[in-house]
Design brief:
7% of the residues lie in helices and 46% in strands. It is mostly beta strands. Strands 20, 21, 24, 25, 26, 27, 29, 30 and 33 form a nine-stranded antiparallel beta sheet that branches. Strands 1, 5, 6, 8, 13, 14, 15 and 17 form an eight-stranded antiparallel beta sheet that branches. The longest helix is centred in the first third of the chain and has 18 residues, at 5-22. The two termini are 61 Å apart.
């Protein structure tokens, strides 16, 4: 946006005046400890429902005027649904794209809503088909939030801002922030964030206003020919205050919602996890010796206490909502608490967060595990915020049904390993091994308890005999024109086949070849594959194992830097042109093998051939007459021709 100096000064002055009014004695301070919270609906509080559906949803914000939503249509078949324990143990309210399927209040004051000046809205929802989430106002004086756009005014063409990213089909923490510049023509700044990361930021003129009288606030309804909302809503918080530039405020509210519902923030840009006290709960830039927190930024979640949010305390949280690879559920069990009935944190603002390194759910690392065991590829890191107190013992429930561990594995075959000295090695004498306190071999779900310290990492290991395949080796070797992939097993149980997979980014994988397995064997077996088409630069490889019942597992990921073709692409000769009888230098900056170099005249006759090893060599032109020649370089299947002039 562009504002001249004079207007900027006016804007700052007006902003100070508005701030003095908004944050002065008349400002409403909510249980959320944020200024100006006017509407707050959470599906786990104040919901009235029967077998036919939801008839009322109470505004949980404590202020003089509360705005409780109701449904008085009398059409019971279209009432919103109440879905218990739908999202990380919390309920949601479902809407089905029916104009009668709505909750509303007809007496919300525009002065409380304050939409024309500034508004900060936070929601946790998913959308099956788009539509209108909420609206406030009447006629052309209304503000509408839809899944793919916002409308400032009821007319179809007025002040419409389309979002870069619509609300998706999975649960998301969505932030919609509106800020006025307070400078004619009173443009509005719109900022849309998804899971903590801004995905749209733009400025639009605003010719409409929200009425200064009493208007309706409707959730789930349509306006005009716009579709009603179809999906589920867990929570809505609307502030009559500006959070567009208040990144700390925005981060604390998004953290509350993300941790409560188990929705990890988008890792793009290392988004901040922050409590209301201003403390960063997950510092991406901290390196504790065993790896920076940014390395373990997958599926970040946790348990915490923050009295600023209505003395809410979330003792349990799934690893990550909306993923089939959720493994951990944590609960505070210090001082006699249980997983089903956790204890309370001792102090406000305490938190215990965990995130993982993105490793697969395969037990494939035999080198970094106790003797006779194989470690899971996935490793977790913890971050404790103690706030001058202690947290104590945490009990985790582990779900290994999505891993490659054999069904029926005994409890004694599964252990937890903690890197107590934070050196990235799980086999040191100072590290700790913990047995499971419970285990179901059929479901492959169990529990363990530990008193973790800040920065520690932990993983799981199983006895090698409990795995379909015990990996004995996995090696890569880059040649001049190929990459040799070699792996071996010492045990195979019910093993159908292997797939060799390659990736250029470590995330998206392509299957290159298949090798048949040995079924069941306890003998060493070697396998190999030659990749003749590696990309120039870093190539990632892994082996996918599939047993006869379709269960999959993966080896560790290895990488190799392939420069075969690159050595020729970056080659050069000089001086060029050269003088008769002089020496011509050849540079092959990335070459590590043998390159065959030939000099060919314009008729195609090969005049000389030599082999250059390493990054440089020389060509002798003493027997060449003046004219044009071609220098042909050959390295495996790769070749390059360079023009050479002799004067």
């Amino acid at each position: 946006m562009t504002i001249n100096t004079l207007n900027m000064k006016k804007a700052l002055l007006l902003l100070l005046l508005f701030s003095a009014t908004s944050y002065g004695l008349r400002a409403q301070v909510s249980p959320g400890c944020q200024q100006g919270l006017q509407l707050w609906y959470a599906a786990d509080t104040g919901v009235t429902f029967t077998g036919s559906g939801v008839t009322a949803w109470a505004d949980r914000e404590t202020k003089t005027q509360t705005y409780n939503l109701t449904n008085t249509t009398g059409v019971t078949a279209s009432l919103p649904s109440h879905n218990a324990s739908q999202l990380n143990g919390h309920p949601t309210i479902g809407f089905d794209n029916n104009n009668e399927d709505q909750l509303y209040n007809t007496s919300v004051l525009a002065s409380d809503f304050k939409a024309i000046a500034y508004m900060s809205c936070y929601m946790v929802l998913n959308a099956n088909t788009g539509g209108q989430v909420f609206q406030h106002g009447t006629g052309s004086n209304r503000v509408i939030f839809m899944t793919n756009e916002t409308r400032w005014g009821g007319k179809a063409a007025d002040n419409t801002v389309s979002f870069t990213n619509s609300v998706g089909s999975s649960y998301e923490v969505k932030s919609w922030l509106v800020s006025s510049q307070f400078v004619p023509p009173f443009n509005q700044i719109y900022q849309i964030s998804t899971n903590g990361v801004v995905d749209d930021d733009e400025t639009q003129g605003s010719s409409s206003n929200v009425s200064t009288t009493t208007d309706s606030f409707v959730v789930g309804a349509r306006h005009s020919n716009r579709a009603s909302f179809e999906g589920e809503i867990a929570e809505i918080m609307i502030y009559k205050s500006e959070h567009y530039l208040a990144t700390a405020t925005k981060a604390s509210i998004e953290t509350y919602l993300a941790l409560k519902y188990g929705i990890s923030k988008n890792t793009s840009g290392n988004p901040t996890y922050r409590n209301k006290d201003g403390v960063t709960l997950w510092d991406y830039n901290t390196d504790c010796g065993n790896g920076a927190y940014s390395t373990f930024s997958n599926r970040i979640t946790g348990i915490f206490r923050d009295n600023c949010f209505g003395t809410l305390e979330f003792n349990k949280s799934t690893n990550s909502v909306g993923t089939s690879t959720a493994v951990l559920t944590g609960a505070l069990t210090d001082n006699g608490g249980t997983f089903a009935n956790p204890n309370s944190f001792q102090a406000d603002f305490q938190a215990f967060l965990w995130g993982d390194n993105g490793g697969t759910l395969s037990f494939a690392n035999a080198s970094d595990a106790p003797t006779g065991f194989t470690r899971l590829n996935r490793v977790w890191k913890v971050d404790e915020t103690l706030n001058s107190s202690t947290i104590g013992q945490i009990t985790f429930e582990i779900d290994l049904s999505g891993s490659d561990i054999n069904a029926g594995t005994n409890q004694s075959d599964v252990i937890i390993i903690i890197d107590r000295n934070n050196d990235g090695d799980f086999t040191d004498a100072g590290d700790e091994t913990i047995n499971l306190s419970s285990w179901n071999g059929t479901t492959r779900i169990g529990q363990f308890s530990a008193d973790f310290d800040d920065c520690e990492t932990f993983s799981m290991a199983v006895r090698s005999t409990a795995l379909p395949v015990t990996w004995s080796k996995f090696n890569l070797e880059a040649g001049d024109d190929r990459v040799n992939v070699v792996w071996g097993t010492s045990t195979e149980i019910n093993n159908s086949h292997f797939e060799v997979q390659r990736s250029v980014d470590g995330k998206t994988w392509t299957t290159l070849a298949t090798r048949s397995g040995q079924g069941t064997t306890h003998d060493y077996t070697d396998y190999s594959f030659i990749d003749y088409t590696p990309v120039v630069g870093v190539n990632y490889y892994r082996i996918k194992q599939v047993d006869f019942s379709g269960v999959e597992s993966f080896s560790v990921v290895e990488s190799v830097n392939f420069m075969g073709y690159f050595a020729l692409e970056k080659s050069s000769i000089f001086p060029n042109p050269s003088s008769n009888g002089s020496t011509v230098n050849m540079e092959l900056p990335f070459n590590k093998g043998k390159v065959t170099v030939s000099v060919v005249d314009i008729t195609g006759n090969e005049l000389s051939t030599q082999v250059i090893e390493g990054a440089s060599g020389q060509l002798n032109t003493k027997d060449l007459s003046e004219g044009l020649y071609f220098v042909k370089m050959q390295k495996g299947n790769a070749s390059k021709v360079v023009r050479m002039v002799v004067n």
